[in-house]
Amino acid sequence: MKLLSRKAACNTHGQDSSYFLGWQEYEKNPYDESHNPTGIIQMGLAENQLSFDLLESWLASNPDAAGFKRDGQSIFRELALFQDYHGLPDFKKALVEFMSEIRGNKVSFDPKKLVLTAGATSANETLMFCLADPGEAFLLPTPYYPGFDRDLKWRTGVEIVPIKCTSSNGFRITESALEEAYQAAGKRNLKVKGVLVTNPSNPLGTTLSRHELNLLLSFVTEKGIHLISDEIYSGTVFSSPGFLSVMEILMDKKYSMNTEVWKRVHIVYSLSKDLGLPGFRVGAIYSNDDVVVEAATKMSSFGLVSSQTQYLLSAMLSDKKFRKNYISENQKRLRHRQEMLISGLESAGIRCLKSNAGLFCWVDMRHLLSSETFDAEMELWKKIVYDVGLNISPGSSCHCDEPGWFRVCFANMSAATLNLAIQRIKLFVQSTAAGSKQNQSYHQSLNNSRRKSLTKWVFRLSFDGREPDER
User: Which GO terms describe its biological process (predicted)?
Assistant: First the structure.
């Protein structure tokens, strides 16, 4: 270890979080319908695989784009040599049009204020480097995405101070919670540089209300700090209320372009969730502050989006007919899949926080805890991972203050796999309710279920409710 730098050797990456540990257990024993039907089903991955057929269909109909051709002529050499970190103008134009359409065209974006990054991870870290010095802080409402402990803190030295939200009001942000977080930072001698929110929320799957957004803007205006709105799930809003971007609130008369807060609001976006392309590593920062745009553009040279990726996606997102159909159809499929999970959990006596967006549900399993403690939450989580064979994310990994909540993803698997996961949960809950006398019988039933990749019950449900992408 003496050969390594302090940064490389430090243990602040967050890799020891139960969020990442669950992934490690899944990778040791991944479920596969044919080759490993008793394996762990991955429900900790917020990945959208429900509309991949729409992307593949477009590629098949547009071979020039996939073959890096323009008017039938190869432009491979042109793309391979292009390396301007400002990005391809055509792609930036197509991306801001896509962002606008997701928001119902109620707000428009200027491509000159857009900075391309290698995913939202890079975008969030770049903003930390631009807006805060090591030892300064950002306030984040809880529960929040576990990866933020890595993305925002590890290399930047920026601290996170939680804005504590509770289930009593559906984990909504309140004025008192904001002020308490600000005061808590002061007690730790931390200078607060801003607030970062995810809208829609990861892990809650809920959108911020107009009241919350106005509250946030008033708060950052009063304190003279920044507001970062991570809106990477904005295109996954599938039911009422619809998505309301902070940029739309900024368009109100009281937040004119002449006000300071106009320059202190920044948006993070990505195509990983809305378009289901996490492997393409396409993220973006949008800011009204020219200084931030300039600094972030310079920093983006450490995490560029390949010109080949930009060319392909500029062609895809410039297709207005495809764009409109994809947004609509993707939202329908997400809503249907969420309903499948909620209905299945309810039949097992488990409820979820009411949500309208995202690729996951915030699931209430407090009644299954042996005690109202985080130790009991970890005990339950381990049973679900090792005995039930499901990797879900415990609320404590998301810094939730109340033990017993879990994030459960539903869009990264087939309908048949989701039904199998629900069947496993049902068996587990039944055994818990029945008590210790039936534990042996339960484990036998559970193992039998896990040895069969798809039972007749799963076949019936999957064929009755399968989705277009699984035909």
Answer: ethylene biosynthetic process; fruit ripening
Residue 81 corresponds to which tokens in the numbers above?
């040599």
CA distances from 281 to 116, 161, 309 (A): 10, 28, 9
- Is 230 a known active-site residue? yes
- 264 vs 268: CA distance, rounded Å: 13
Q: Both 295 and 379 in a single domain?
A: no
Active-site option among 113, 153, 193, 273? 273
Distance in angstroms (rounded) separating the CA atoms of residues 145 and 253: 33
Q: Exactly one of 230, 274, 289, 364 is catalytic; which is it?
A: 230
- Which pTM does this prediction carry? 0.88
Residue-range definition of the domain harbouring residue 78: 64-319
In angstroms, what CA-CA distances link 24 with 8, 21, 29, 53, 398?
21, 5, 9, 29, 17
Is 329 a domain residue? no
Compute how many other C-beta atoms are within 10 angstroms of the C-beta atom of residue 201: 26
- Average pLDDT of adjacent 10-residue blocks, the chain of 471 residues: 74 68 86 93 94 94 88 84 84 96 93 95 96 97 94 93 97 98 97 98 97 96 96 96 93 72 94 91 95 95 89 94 95 97 96 97 96 96 95 95 97 96 95 61 51 38 36 29
Q: Do 403 and 460 reside in the same domain of the chain?
A: yes
What's the CA gap between 384 and 183, in Å, rounded? Answer: 38
CATH of the domain at 192: 3.40.640.10
**DSSP 8-class letter at 164:** -
Specify whether 95 is located in the same domain as 208.
yes
Q: Going by DSSP bridges, is the β-strand pair 159-163/192-198 parallel, antiparallel, or unpaired? A: unpaired
The alpha carbon of residue 109 and the mean position of all alpha carbons in its chain are separated, in whole angstroms, by 22
pLDDT of residue 279: 86
Distance between CA atoms of residues 122 and 288, nearest Å = 19
| Catalytic entry in 145, 182, 326, 442 | 145
Please tell me whether residues 216 and 281 are part of one structural domain: yes
* Annotation says 144 is catalytic: no
Catalytic annotation on 90?
no
At what angle are helices 374-382 and 18-28 packed, to 10 degrees? 10
Task: Please indicate whether residue 153 is annotated as part of the active site.
Answer: no
